[in-house]
Design goal:
Layout lengths: L4 H7 L4 H10 L6 H11 L8 H14 L35
Helix pairs in contact: 2-3
Length: 99
Amino acid sequence: MRFSDDDIQKFLPLPTATFHILMAVVDSDRHGYSIIQDVVERTGGRLRLSAGTLYRSVQRMLDQGLLTEPRTRPAPRWRARNHCQGWCSGSSTWSPRTR
């Protein structure tokens, strides 16, 4: 799915958790705990996502089309695609969906 500039504007400003989840999965495959650790590291400990916040945010992002589920279920990780095109599997990998 590709987003137009108008579509992208509808998501802005991004909620803090959404922004940091997208940043965590943009460069590498990650599972939930790895995303939480990445956010802590990137923010110098200033932000710590709870599991509930992470999974609620991911579900919302899936519903919005910011993340998608992969056709095949890889090892439990979330995977990012270039420029916000995403993947997610319920117990495993996610990536952001970009334009």
